[in-house]
Design brief:
Keywords: FAD, Flavoprotein, Oxidoreductase. The chain is of the alpha+beta class. It has eleven helices and 14 strands.
Length: 275
């Protein structure tokens, strides 16, 4: 199947993109790894596609004392390859390396992944665990939201008409920080059936945990000390989040969460592609 007819615009700057997207029938596109298939399947039928992949404001990064603000149009591959700095001890490259296939990572963008808000995508869960914030710009100006507040549900975000993601701010983590990330896929490259990310940074007292691949948005525990110290803490967490109703799914999520926690003690992230 081919996409329905649509107009195509490539504005020169962010201001031009905001104007073009003010039309409620327009959709932004960066890497096109999510919107492209939706267009071809006619699940999305915008009157206009606004290409923001080459906007200078979205292709750079800004070093700040507390972290790094990454442009939304930076690709997964650029994080994987170390083409941009990492304010963590290598956590961003680890996550990027496990996203789909290299062809997807060459084009897919960090901002596009968040805007699409697929519960089984890697960046929403990992960035929520890392305490990242999403920077937005639109007709009403600019604003920023924590990842867990930006994503409202499955494929649902806080974006308003005419607004785009301009960047993602990732806080700096100390050299003592540890990150555990695990997911279960039927085969490499497929979307995850269960996913968990855990961050422990003794220097700042941070203990965050995020569970992805749910039926809604990610479950984020800002203070996961109880789940990390109590052998039955993962079970209690899943039950409290309403993720224990299906016995098979509960067992899989429990195992993946335990693997992510166990990975905190490892110097490198396990592949974790299958349970």
């Amino acid at each position: 199947m081919k996409a329905a007819r649509f107009d195509y615009l490539r504005p020169a700057d962010r201001a031009g993109a905001t104007v073009a997207l003010a039309d409620g029938d327009a959709r932004p596109m960066a890497g096109g790894q999510s919107l492209g298939p939706m267009l071809n399947l006619r699940l999305a039928r915008p009157g206009c596609v606004v290409d923001i992949s080459r906007l200078p404001e979205l292709r750079g990064f800004e070093e700040r004392p507390a972290g790094i603000l990454f442009g939304a149009a930076l690709t997964h591959a650029e994080f994987e390859d170390g083409a941009v700095p990492d304010p963590t001890p290598g956590f961003l490259a680890q996550v990027a390396r496990g996203i789909a296939y290299r062809a997807v990572r060459n084009r897919g963008t960090i901002g596009g992944s968040l805007a699409h808000a697929d519960p089984a995508a890697d960046w929403p869960t990992a960035l929520a665990a890392l305490g990242a914030h999403v920077h937005l710009a639109g007709p009403a100006g600019t604003r920023e939201l924590p990842v867990e507040a930006f994503i409202l549900g499955a494929f649902e975000t806080a974006l308003v008409p005419g607004e785009i993601i301009t960047g993602v701010f990732v806080p700096r983590r100390s050299g003592q920080a540890r990150f555990g990330y695990s997911k279960s896929c039927r085969k490499v490259g497929e979307f995850a059936e269960a996913m968990c990310a855990v961050l422990v940074d003794p220097e700042s007292g941070t203990r965050r945990l995020a569970i992805g691949a749910t039926e809604a948005r990610q479950v984020v525990i800002a203070d996961a000390a109880a789940a990390l110290s109590n052998p039955g803490g993962v079970d209690d967490l899943l039950r409290a989040a309403g993720l224990a109703t299906d016995p098979a799914a509960f067992k899989l999520r429990r195992e993946i969460a335990r693997r992510a926690i166990a990975a905190l003690e490892s110097e490198s992230m396990p592949e974790g592609q299958s349970a």
